[in-house]
Structure prediction request, 220 residues.
Amino acid sequence: MTASSAAPAPSEKGAEVGRRIGVGLMYGLWKPRVLGAWRVPATGPVIYAVNHAHNIDGPMVMGVAPRPTHFLIKKEAFVGPLGRFLTGIGQLPVDRHSADRTAIGQALGVLADGGVLGIFPEGTRGEGDFASLRAGLAYFAVRGGAPIVPVAVLGSTDRPGRLIKALPPLRSRVDVVFGDPFDAGDGSGRRTRKVLDEATERIQKQLTAHLENARRLTGR
Prediction:
């Protein structure tokens, strides 16, 4: 038995519960403004490629997105009660320092079932500008045959009112901008290193352009 086949499939119902919890938390603590959610395909596999500047980026997208989302989240977060909670709402632990076959299998399973996979292509929280992308996003998009929907989460960077450095000030406006879906592959269906490298370049251009447009649109 492989590692991927041994792992339980993430719960779609759990992800929907997570979405509802996210709605309550995000609208209770901040003031989300959602733009372009209508661009998300209503059915079929989809990958959200989300910039990552704040700790609330994942829960925010999970709460305001039109479809339940299974995020790949660093395995270090899956500890104790929080770990059980994240698993219960359909989220996927991933080892960022190795080729995690279990996480890969689960993520591809989400796409094969026509679900939504959420990825932070920068790998970790940083400037949130898509400047450094990992190849994992291209692999899942090409292998899973899923369009990518770029998502820009833009929160206030002002110091006043900020209780925790990694969070926007409470009750401040947070903009979530969904972009047009696009295909990362070259249409050949091949998954060679060259194809994935070229796909990563295309993805970075698309995500950077979306982020620039989102900033113009929101004044951020």
About this structure: Residues 35-218 form a domain with the Glycerol-3-phosphate (1)-acyltransferase fold (CATH 3.40.1130.10).
